[in-house]
Amino acid sequence: xxxxxxxxxxxxxxxxxxxxxxxxxxxxxxxxxxxxxxxxxxxxxxxxxxxxxxxxxxxxxxxxxxxxxxxxxxxxxxxxxxxxxxxxxxxxxxxxxxxxxxxxxxxxxxxxxxxxxxxxxxxxxxxxxxxxxxxxxxxxxxxxxxxxxxxxxxxxxxxxxxxxxxxxxxxxxxxxxxxxxxxxxxxxxxxxxxxxxxxxxxxxxxxxxxxxxxxxxxxxxxxxxxxxxxxxxxxxxxxxxxxxxxxxxxxxxxxxxxxxxxxxxxxxxxxxxxxxxxxxxxxxxxxxxxxxxxxxxxxxxxxxxxxxxxxxxxxxxxxxxxxxxxxxxxxxxxxxxxxxxxxxxxxxxxxxxxxxxxxxxxxxxxxxxxxxxxxxxxxxxxxxxxxxxxxxxxxxxxxxxxxxxxxxxxxxxxxxxxxxxxxxxxxxxxxxxxxxxxxxxxxxxxxxxxxxxxxxxxxxxxxxxxxxxxxxxxxxxxxxxxxxxxxxxxxxxxxxxxxxxxxxxxxxxxxxxxxxxxxxxxxxxxxxxxxxxxxxxxxxxxxxxxxxxxxxxxxxxxxxxxxxxxxxxxxxxxxxxxxxxxxxxxxxxxxxxxxxxxxxxxxxxxxxxxxxxxxxxxxxxxxxxxxxxxxxxxxxxxxxxxxxxxxxxxxxxxxxxxxxxxxxxxxxxxxxxxxxxxxxxxxxxxxxxxxxxxxxxxxxxxxxxxxxxxxxxxxxxxxxxxxxxxxxxxxxxxxxxxxxxxxxxxxxxxxxxxxxxxxxxxxxxxxxxxxxxxxxxxxxxxxxxx
Amino acid sequence: xxxxxxxxxxxxxxxxxxxxxxxxxxxxxxxxxxxxxxxxxxxxxxxxxxxxxxxxxxxxxxxxxxxxxxxxxxxxxxxxxxxxxxxxxxxxxxxxxxxxxxxxxxxxxxxxxxxxxxxxxxxxxxxxxxxxxxxxxxxxxxxxxxxxxxxxxxxxxxxxxxxxxx
Lengths: 786, 166
Fold this sequence. Notes:
A: 7-stranded mixed β-sheet, B: Arc Repressor Mutant, subunit A, 4-stranded mixed β-sheet
């Protein structure tokens, strides 16, 4: 610890901290542009010059480490003069077009120019002009003359994004910030450069010129997309969500947001929003009032239950719904006598729910996971599934974490892997079993599982050694593992691996409220907070054995289920399909019979339980559009109309209190399965098998309708990817049109050889409109020349 | 895109740096790429670096293309614009100027019929003004194709040198 003095204030700081860090802990503000606490030190804006006693000239506070006895003056005449000098230089080439600049009102340069700039400029010469750049559909770089070359955006893409997509070309007064020639910025977390840019050079393309910063009110919310539960500031004007910014939460999203969290708000104002209840009769849709629609729903449910029994009804609830909605949905179903309710819509393995002993979760807090010394990530396209978690893991690797991967594709993670096993989906279980077998032999213990079919390879050995070498290891299963038909085997193996090595184990919750759905009881085998219930069918089973009636909560089955083809067929054969939805999507209009407009997360109070089991509640930020109502209210009224008990709640808080009164969420998180039998036999060589992950911006109904996200490369029409060996065997060249067939559907797509894939794998994204007709995400698939 | 020889040279440069500092090889790799293009390019546009070459080099050594582009555009000896078969860079800084450096530049300019910064119509010569080359004692000096230093470039020496280039 060092004793220093800043502006006469004595303080004790850690060795190695910089003057600016020390000043900030002391509450002293030092003006700066290029400094950012999460980025490396550049010291190129020079705005933070301060006077240090015994130093001959002003020093940059961001790059000067403190020394014992240092005396710093941040506002002495010398420091002030230096800062004013820097400001004068910064403004020389800055266009000072604040009145027409989108950053006006929230611009660091504008703010600091008030404090450190002169009222007039002494610069008479011509200002330089920099042509705009194309950084893609999310980030606008049209006015690069405003850039002050702080290089925050460059450092962000390099250090946080993992791949330097932006650079500073040329030098001196010809310096320009640009993406690589002819390329755009395609990072899944690129939007953060907009927040980082201290001037109006990089602005939000969807937001710009729509409103002024000071006209917006700021309201807190929580991201409804991935399981991280990023904290949001939703900015609202005249009852419309105008944009979304990060709310800093060091334990969850730090100060970042993934592009999906940031730009999906456009989907909230989509033209496809459902504003009035609609009923289909005679094959035509008719708008109606709530009373008629609700009576129709009640009649439908009663009719099907009278004709076919309660078991003929299935509830498919989206894990992007709030905890309150999911709680009331399961209460409605179970009070009515229906046991078929599930929120794990894309899970194909029905055995998991029956064997679960608690809500599946990460098995650690996000910060604990990031602090692990050794990580094994099984079946996760990390950057697509949880962009910010992937970024956090990258930071951990820089600090020495060993990252190991078992996956179905050798995805570019922009980080160093300690060891990896890239296998076909059919061999995923065997690959994890190899690691377990290696760990068992390293630790010299007995395993309860029969691992004789696993032949330990070199990489599996390395992964096991890495997990065994530390007492702070973690094994996490991603979406691919969770959607995989052998999820229960993978979970059982992870559990056993955890027992053998002492590592934590868990899953990265797919959706904002996957954990919350389990906690709220939207699970076929477990009630709210683990209450015992009569087991019903899982989502996969409800669709494989079609029901007579379906009750959909925020669900579009063609994109939100494991097997879209099967799901749509199940909907079409049903006597009635009741959908509580915010959107009148083409799919729902095709197969549903009644649409009830419910509010998305921005228009209702509620809560999400993120992957670490943390319940985060939020209020609606705007009023519901049209006649849309919060889904919890609709479910409550349906409960009343069906004459069920216990539907007297008056607010989302009441619903939440009712659920939380049943117990403590943290005590109900448990990844251990009751049965741990696992068949780990090596796969017989079969035909081609599909790897069908959900693309980044097709994961849920809101982001599917965000136009700017849909223009990104990540949302482009999927390309069929096969291993180079398969491409050669089938005689396919890059760019050829091929026909992929699954079940009754065939789809024409372009093909590309991809050396990231194992032989026998055909990678075709699911959930995209172009591939929704296909069947299971990890099922056999045929491919032929088109 | 680059010959096996050039790639072998880049491999050699890569081996010179510690594993975590391999990106330092970007400068040498770009130089090697530029040299090959100058030696093999048929037209001025084929003798300089372009986006494809820089991206290839970046991918070869394993750095982001834009990082290589930053390097290539920062240093002026990486030719980013079309360049003649013979690139003549004459030093016009003070010590050379005192010894007739400016005259040397003007003499070449007159002889080749191109102004400073221009490439001759036949794509053979490019004449540039350069900064100090660290050989003031030999002034006036010029640099031929980035690599060959020519000292004491009096008009006679220039005539002789240009005759060699024919």
